[in-house]
Amino acid sequence: MAAAETLTQELRRRYEEAKNQRAELIPVWQKITRYVLPQNGKYLGKTTQRDRRVSFGDILDNTASWAHGVLVAGLAAGAFPQATPWAGIRMRDPLLASKNVGGEWADQLSLIVHAVMAQANVYPALRHCVAEMSAFGPGCLVIEEHEENIIHLHKLAAGTYCIDRDFEGYVVALYRELTSTVAAVVDRFGLENCSERVRHAWEQRKYSESVELLHVIDERKQRDPTRQDNRNMPWRSVYIDQSAREDEPPLSESGYPFMPVLCPRWEVHGDDTYGTSAAMKALGDTSGLQHKHVRMGEAIDKMTRPATQGPAEIEEVMGMPGAHTRTTGAARIEPLAPPTLPIQYLWQQIVEGDHVRIARAFYADVFQAFLGDTRSGTTAREIMARLQEKMQGVGPVLNNIDHELLRPLIHAIIWFLMQRGMVPPAPSEIEGQELEVELLAPLFRALKAEQSRGTMQLVEMIAQLGLVPGWDHVRDRVDVDAAADELRDTFGAPARVLKSVREVQSVRDARARMMAAQQQAAMVQQAAGVTKDLAQSPVEPGNALGQLGAGAAQ
């Protein structure tokens, strides 16, 4: 009977399986690194900063790099702008949310969350993540608690990790490759937990010697839900020394109460694990563009330094641009092949064809317009009106950023705040209720604006119909409170802008009492006027007053 598989053996085996699944993407990622993100340097064997700078020389036309930069800048400004709050918090219960119960408390919590993000490394990490996912397909961040900043996000580069997904397509496992030193490993995990090789290097004072680590985060299959220690958390975290023997235990095993891996994918089709990216769609044009520039350079050289032919007495040279070839019987030196290449036509094809297609693949036209509007002082409503049609193509990507990146991040921050007792006491009416994150950034509001525009058009049409004689009753169909709540959500206004249900009802009751008092006063005044008129009227036997007086006299 075969011996049971150790934890180290199991995780190494699963890691190798995940690497095999990722292998088919490596050649594609190499080309993207070469022509779009040379600063990445992961797949070209570039390890030093100098080597990575040299990689920029491989780019003869930087249209793809430029378009990718516009895309990243637009997403950063439109999905998580650092200057303004972009995430709100409200009750998950629609009834409570519509009544705006606990709205001011939720706004206060939202401000605390944004303060944490501004203090931590959240914004550089988010920008890195969208740059990675738009280039390679997935972007990956690992959430860790930080003593001072509450939270810290580790930025992972494509090619340094592998992922697994569950049956529903969600990322449920991360295999992360790390390179550290003997000193750092001993400091982090303790000498007693290190492998034999690391302990030996420590004893030899080889503190700077490299150590290859494997960090695995996955769902813990066997645990005691009643216990909340690190070995019984829903998610497992294991560090393994790759140089350790298979019978040696991992460096550490701990856990998380939630999935700490944020791994949004640009587009996911079917059972794909890593997804596709904008750079992949533009890769054919991008790589072909570099080839065209090489050929155009050669054509220009042939025009400015054409190959020549001449008498045999002249030194023989190969027929490259500027070269000379000996030709028997030639009387003079002259061009071997007159330059007739259509350089202008070729350049026109590049500008009007390749550049346009690459820019469209990266949505550069959309985000250029967006960035230009935000910098020119255009209002958010005007920006949304301009972007509604163009944003339809970016909608699925924003949906992935919403559900796989931003919402889990906000929930993690709130969890850390709750553990430290930094969440203000909730009102009694919402105690125990679930919270929901609503994204208020311009790009997300632009996607919601279409629905709200329909609401506004309906309200305006009904209001106009109510002015038509005999149609005033149609205004009773409009729930103005619901319309106000929907518009507040769309435009991202804080909850304090709208009064609570209790405050509104109090105002309406006061208004009703005032109107009733005014009506009663008007009736009393009217009755007094009638009495005065009757008193001043002449009393005749035939009128009602005279008959009343006669009756009284009897």
Largest sheet: 5 strands, antiparallel
Measured between the Cα atoms of the first and last residue, the distance is: 127 Å
Shape: flat
Strand order of the largest sheet: 4-5-6-7-8
Number of helices: 19
Helical residue percent band: 40-55%
* Low-confidence spans: 548-554
Number of strands: 13
Residues in β-strands, percent: 5-15%
Secondary-structure content class = alpha+beta
CA-atom Rg in angstroms: 36 Å
Mean pLDDT: 79
Could you explain the architecture of this structure?
This protein has 554 residues and is α+β, with helices and mostly antiparallel strands. It has a domain at 298-357. It has 19 helices and 13 strands. A hairpin with a 3-residue loop joins strand 2 and strand 3 (150-156). Helix 8 crosses helix 9 and helix 11 packs antiparallel against helix 12 (343-361). The radius of gyration is 36 Å and the shape is flat.
How would the blueprint of this fold be written?
Elements: H1 7-22, H2 26-35, H3 49-55, H4 63-79, E1 87-91, H5 94-98, H6 103-119, H7 122-136, E2 140-146, E3 150-156, E4 161-165, E5 171-181, H8 182-189, H9 196-203, E6 210-219, E7 235-241, E8 252-256, E9 261-262, H10 278-281, H11 283-304, E10 308-310, E11 324-326, E12 334-335, H12 343-361, H13 364-375, H14 380-387, H15 395-419, E13 435-439, H16 442-465, H17 480-491, H18 501-536, H19 544-553
Parallel strand pairs: 10-11
Antiparallel strand pairs: 1-13, 2-3, 2-9, 4-5, 5-6, 6-7, 7-8, 10-12
